Amino acid sequence: MRGPPDSVGSQTTGAKRKPALCPVDKMLSVVPWYNGLPALERNLVRSELRTVSLATGEYLFRAGSKSLGWYGVVEGLVKWTSPGADGKSLSLAGFSIGSWFGEATMLRRERFEYEVIALRPSRIVILPRDTCERLWNHNIEFTKALTMHLAQRVNWLMASYTGNVLLDVDTTVARAVAAQFDAERHADTQGRLKISQEEIASLCGVSRQRCNAALTRLARAGVLQTHYGGMTILDKDALYRRALING
């Protein structure tokens, strides 16, 4: 019996797949101000981005370092801390995929008064200050985005201060989880967060035991479910209520 023509085996069985985006382009693909730029300007901005890779425990910058621009997290998780004269540090926030930070120091043209350290292997992009100033002066969407980041940062710092001074551990842990959930919304993770309990404890500045106990109580309340390699948010509204955040 004669077999099928040779051409049958060489035919494609479906539509061609689009090539996968590199991590930097994937992150930029959901940034509104970037996608709103004219094609030529967008390509120029992309070419001006610098990329930095960090190992766990490696600092992106230390207090006193000069700002190089606006920083964005492509992969991983970094912690924003304020060093004290006694050698201890105050944990301020965590930045995960899609987060941008460092705008205030960049705009003031001052040196950093805080530090950023990687809690896991991370990749960071730096939008140079000269590029930011060009966009600030000529692109209204970028100006709006940067202004909104500044407003959100002030709001977060006020909430962080309240949490460190007045709130209990459960609320502080819920705030840290909510912050990571907000940062990763764009990534279509369906509520799954790739963050360990140890990393949450580090972001909150509490012991791992106290953090685990707080997460257990949140799980029992049906707010989230912990599993190997992270957790899944089951009830976003309940999480915001526990964190005393208006969602």
UniProtKB/TrEMBL annotation:
One of its GO terms (cellular component) is cytosol. InterPro entries: cNMP-bd_dom (IPR000595), cNMP-bd_dom_sf (IPR018490), Env_Response_Regulators (IPR050397), HTH_CRP (IPR012318), RmlC-like_jellyroll (IPR014710), WH-like_DNA-bd_sf (IPR036388), WH_DNA-bd_sf (IPR036390). Keywords: DNA-binding, Transcription, Transcription regulation. Residues 33-153 form the Cyclic nucleotide-binding domain. Pfam families: cNMP_binding, HTH_Crp_2. SMART domains: cNMP (SM00100). GO terms for molecular function: DNA binding; DNA-binding transcription factor activity. Transmembrane segments: none annotated. This is Cyclic nucleotide-binding domain-containing protein. It comes from Achromobacter kerstersii. The lineage of its organism: Bacteria, Pseudomonadati, Pseudomonadota, Betaproteobacteria, Burkholderiales.
